[in-house]
Amino acid sequence: MSEAVTRLDAMSEPSIFTRILQGEIPAEIVAETENVFAIRDIAPQAPVHLLVIPKTQRYRNVVELAAGDPALLAELIGLADSVAAEHADGDFRLIFNTGEGAGQTVFHVHAHVLAGGLNEKSLGG
Fold first, then answer.
1. Which residues of 57-68 are buried (b: 16+ CB within 10 A; e: fewer)?
2. Which residues pair with 93 in a beta bridge?
3. 78-95: per-residue pLDDT in tens?
4. 110 among known catalytic residues
5. Strand 48-54 vs strand 36-40: parallel, antiparallel, or unpaired?
6. Which residue of the set 49, 87, 110, 112 is catalytic?
7. Alpha helices, DSSP H only, in 1-125?
8. Residue-wise over 79-115: b if at least 16 C-beta within 10 A, else e?
9. Under a CB-based contact definition with an 8 Å cutoff, are residues 44 and 63 in contact?
10. Which one of 67, 79, 96, 123 has the largest count of C-beta atoms within 10 Å of its C-beta?
11. What is the CATH number of domain 13-116?
């Protein structure tokens, strides 16, 4: 396993994303870097709906990630741009849910890449 996987250390139990990365839960990994990976969302809210996730579960949300590791946040956004270029026309919406009241259900920071026929008035597709 990669060094990034071995440094998953923040939570007492592995998140669903960590379990996917470790091969315990099946998912289609569509792209990967040393520190970040992207999968298809199992309940898509747009024609293209991908999740981009750091391999560490150290950060619960984007605010913690930005404060704790800006370079990792930049890598996550770079991979979001790459998967949007590959799986859509390069135009995309990038969404981070932060907190239960904002719809966050998995407290392992991740970005939603939405694309395909979106307009300014649509929140999710």
1. bbbbbbeebeee
2. 114
3. 999 999 999 999 999 999
4. yes
5. antiparallel
6. 110
7. 3-6, 16-21, 62-68, 70-87
8. bbebbbeebbeeebbbbbbeeeeeebeebbbbbbbbb
9. no
10. 79
11. 3.30.428.10
Q: Does residue 97 have a pLDDT over 70?
A: yes
Q: How far out from the chain centre does Cα 36 lie?
A: 8
43/109 Cα distance (integer angstroms): 18
CA-wise closest residue to 108 among 9, 24, 42, 2: 9
- What global pTM score does this model have? 0.86
Distance CA 95, CA 22 (A): 25
- The closest of 123, 106, 116 to 53, measured between CA atoms, is 106
Q: Which two tokens stand for residue 84?
A: 């949007």
